[in-house]
Amino acid sequence: MKTNSDKPLDVAIIGAGPAGIAAGRECSKNQLSFKIIEARNRVGGRAHTVDFNGQALDLGAHWMHMAASNPLVPHTKACGVETVQSAGIYPRYKDGQRQSSELSHNLHEAWAITEANAQSKASAAHDLSVAECMPTLETYPQLKDWLDTLAFGYSLYSGRAAAEVSAFDYARVDDGENLFPKGGYGSLVAKLAQNLPIEFDSVVTSIDWSGEPIRLETAKERFKAKKLIITIPVMVLAKGEVKFIPPLPKLHLNAIHAFKPAAYEHVVMRWDDHPFKDGADQLTLFNGDRIRNISVLAEIEGSFYHYIEVGGQILTDFIGTAEQKKAFSIEIAMNELKRHFGPERVKQIEIMHVTDWWNDKYSAGSWSVAPPGAALSREALQTPIDNKIWFAGEATSPNQWGTVGGAWLEGERAVRHIVKLLQ
């Protein structure tokens, strides 16, 4: 086995997703010696853009959430990437018919009520679930038969049933305007990784932090570093396939195991004669069950491609192989579209791809979800270990968890702390 160098790196970074790329760029800016060690054969992690017949489509992260505080927004101009603002009020369909703007307003208001309840009633010490903060038919009768659709919206947004999501964690998210970067979010992240020293196809199997320097092993190579930043998703860490010598402290182990994986997948379809006529990149919602339902992000960049978004409890409850899960996602998507627009209309749909981040061995889920009572696991995981090891990623972001921007900020945070120690 090859040893990378006798001289230890200032910083070793595990993972070339958004957090790892941000950490690498920050190391470079501060003239630290570093290397990024990546298990995949590409950068980006769960931010990954592919080309479908000349159309860039994101298979992972697509929404540039929280634009006002998203650290990647300033990079779009530098990279020559145009952004488009997402619509604030989304069209709703019932039995194939577009519903009134008044209904859209009511659902928007009900969403705001849930947020207000979560902010006023939930705390780290006395947490609630998001489900407990939702309005009911008694408190908000205007919704009538749309309450289940509202519950599904929270399930899809959070990646798990609303009853499994911490209201305190939900309430502290920096919400606001969202953007879509043209050419794909994953493509933007990849551009920002250019010229960084990245070792691909390298799965870290062992981390020895018992002495100095830290020693890392992959199947191909050994690395030595003064400091280590780990951006491996917490659901992958929870599997225990990386050996830590000595074992991680209980604070960090408990935090890692407190999270649950989110389920959120794209069924990518081409539908030329589609019914969605509200413009490009328009999120479209449907009246339906709180578990078995979908949303559609229609006309990606004005094209005939659309994302059918499937997720939440319907997928977290699913038991079966990866291929069965993909087939199940297609079944949900097509059945819901048939229910609203009829079997003849949907015959024209061509399924192009189905994502499965849940079974992806380097992701094990779409993002991290803190159940009620577990929100402070994010801060616990931020805590450095012996001023040698830092965890960074969307899971360690209290205000932008589940997002590329949150992961990016966390990568930068870890390096800034290291720079202070090394000066």
Main sheet: strands, sense, barrel: 9 strands, mixed
Low-confidence stretches: none
Number of domains: 2
CATH homologous group name of the largest domain:
FAD/NAD(P)-binding domain
Q: Mean pLDDT, nearest integer?
A: 95
Please describe the topology of this protein.
Layout (H helix, E strand, L loop, with lengths): L1 E2 L5 E6 L3 H12 L4 E4 L11 E4 L2 E4 L14 H6 L4 E3 L6 E3 L2 E2 L2 H21 L8 H4 L13 H12 L8 H5 L7 E3 L3 H8 L5 E2 L4 E5 L5 E5 L2 E10 L3 H4 L5 E3 L4 H9 L1 E2 L2 E7 L11 E5 L8 E4 L6 E7 L1 H4 L5 H20 L1 H4 L3 E5 L13 E2 L7 H6 L6 E3 L12 H19 L1
Parallel strand pairs: 1-13, 2-3, 2-13, 3-10, 7-17, 11-14, 13-22
Antiparallel strand pairs: 4-5, 6-9, 7-8, 11-12, 12-13, 15-21, 16-19, 16-20, 17-18, 18-19
Description:
The protein is of the alpha/beta class and 423 residues long. It has 14 helices and 22 strands. The strands form five sheets. Strands 1, 2, 3, 10, 11, 12, 13, 14 and 22 form a nine-stranded mixed β-sheet that branches. Helix 1 (18-29) runs parallel beside helix 14 (404-422).
Task: Provide the descriptors you would attach to this structure in a database record.
FAD/NAD(P)-binding domain; alpha/beta; 2 domains; Polyamine Oxidase, Chain A, domain 2; nine-stranded mixed beta sheet; 423 residues; seven-stranded mixed beta sheet
